[in-house]
Amino acid sequence: MAIEKLTEEECDAALADLDEWKLADDRQSISRVVKFGDFSAAFGFMTRVALIAESMDHHPEWSNVYNTVDITLTTHDAGGLSNRDIAMAGKIDALL
Ligand code: HBI
């Protein structure tokens, strides 16, 4: 089943509940930067997100430098933002 790209209105409505996430200028993705106390805490968080990604079959574009994790969510199959990104952002926020 094709994954539908969110309309601009759907996107804006969904982001109203995701205050920590920034919408890219091209509206194709959302991003959040999270800082932890140390590398171990950051990597533990990444491990938990990785398990969520596998359970959802939806994977972040992310980078880690020591205690900081920079996460970007977009749906490659939809060519932009989909409900999967919104759902994943909510699950990530619930870990923090
Ligand atoms: N993750 N972010 C993201 N976007 C996708 O389109 C995507 C994915 N993980 C797995 C996945 N698609 C597979 O369903 C397809 O590659 C078959």
Number of spatially distinct domains: 1
Contiguous runs where pLDDT drops below 50 for at least 5 residues: none
CATH architectural designation:
2-Layer Sandwich
Total count of strands: 4
What series of H and E elements makes up the topology? HEEHEEH
Q: Helices and strands: which structural class?
A: alpha+beta
Q: Cα-atom Rg, whole angstroms? A: 13 Å
Arithmetic mean pLDDT: 97
For the terminal residues, how far apart are their CA atoms?
Answer: 32 Å
The molecules bound to the chains, other than polymers, are: 7,8-dihydrobiopterin
Task: Report the sheet-strand fraction.
Answer: 15-25%
CATH superfamily: Transcriptional coactivator/pterin dehydratase
Number of helices: 3
CATH C-level category: Alpha Beta
* Amount of helix: 40-55%
EC number: 4.2.1.96
Pfam family, one: Pterin_4a
Catalytic activity: (4aS,6R)-4a-hydroxy-L-erythro-5,6,7,8-tetrahydrobiopterin = (6R)-L-erythro-6,7-dihydrobiopterin + H2O
GO molecular function: 4-alpha-hydroxytetrahydrobiopterin dehydratase activity
Give a brief outline of the structure.
The chain is an alpha+beta fold and 96 residues long.
If you had to describe this structure to a student in words, what would you say it looks like?
This protein has 96 residues and is α+β, with helices and mostly antiparallel strands. It has one domain: Transcriptional coactivator/pterin dehydratase (Gyrase A, domain 2), CATH 3.30.1360.20. It has helices spanning 8-15, 39-56, 83-95; strands at residues 22-23, 30-35, 61-65, 68-73. The structure holds 7,8-dihydrobiopterin. 7,8-dihydrobiopterin (HBI) is lined by residues 57-59, 74-77.
